[in-house]
Write the structure tokens for this entry.
Amino acid sequence: MIKHGIMTLQRHIMEQERKFPMATGEFSGLMSDLAVAAKILARSVNKAGLIDVLGFTGDENIFGEEVKKLDILANETIIHALDHSGHLCVMASEESDGLIEIPDYHPVGKYVMLFDPLDGSSNIDVNISIGTIFSIFRRVTPSGKGTLADVLQQGNQQVAAGYVLYGSSTMFVYSTGQGLHGFTYDPSIGEFLLSNEDMKIPEHGPYYSINEGYYHRWSEGMRRYVSYLKEEDPATGRPYSLRYIGSLVADFHRNLLYGGIFLYPTDTLHPKGKLRLLYEANSLAFLVEQAGGLATDGVRRILDIQPEDLGHRVPLIIGSKKDVELAMDFLRES
Ligand code: AHM
Ligand code: MG
């Protein structure tokens, strides 16, 4: 049943903002810029396989332009789509060292954006789903260019978060703290259309996602938990099925729709975990909570962790509520 005619991402963002009488439209403008960046990136990702045809990375292509690595190109695309509009005071990205300042010749605004331009980049060259992840905060400094204090905020201060999944379709999934909504790109009209309204993650399983090749590097508790998931017990839906793409957005998205748990724990090679709090974990933690799930580092709620620096890494256990709670029990007991 169609309840609202065609709901484009643009219209959805504006209707959400209208619920706040004090809203200035600045936030809608920021999200619209992001949607444009997502469309440009979707086009670039779709053409990635042609790089070998049109020119190798670092070479000049047939048009005499330098062919950039796709993750660098994605980083620059997002920065240039957002740095001039006057909505942001500073940005930070997994692909840039230090803060990304707004150039002097552009106005600054009240928001801060953190992003991972193309996560799962080891999958680019093999045509497997990858994603863009973003977090938006309100600035804490009063004016001028944003500083590290604006960027190093706890995830519970996010005003919005989301991701773009470049899969068999491109999806834009976002939340402003009023539920989690997914939009699928229709290339024939160039719009993201509402396809998954107010998504809720199932309470548990049937999937688990972890790089099981690192089994012998894990803690005892982690090994016991994963062994438990593999035991035969139809009453609790076990064994769970393993699905691991190695592309966080894709692994997260599947578990969000079907139920289950994603884990990137500490291991002997990654004593602090691998994933970044600011660019990966915070955003997805905000989203999963909107969908009724949980995200933890094993002990603490991801959203309550104080970032120490831009590269802060965390173990990440995220997904269906009951699965995450049980994983924490196993880790506590070990
Ligand atoms: P990246 O930011 O360098 O792309 O790394 C992050 C990716 C995640 O998408 C994924 O969950 C994880 O790294 C996979 O790591 P591993 O190959 O160690 O399993
Ligand atoms: Mg990444």
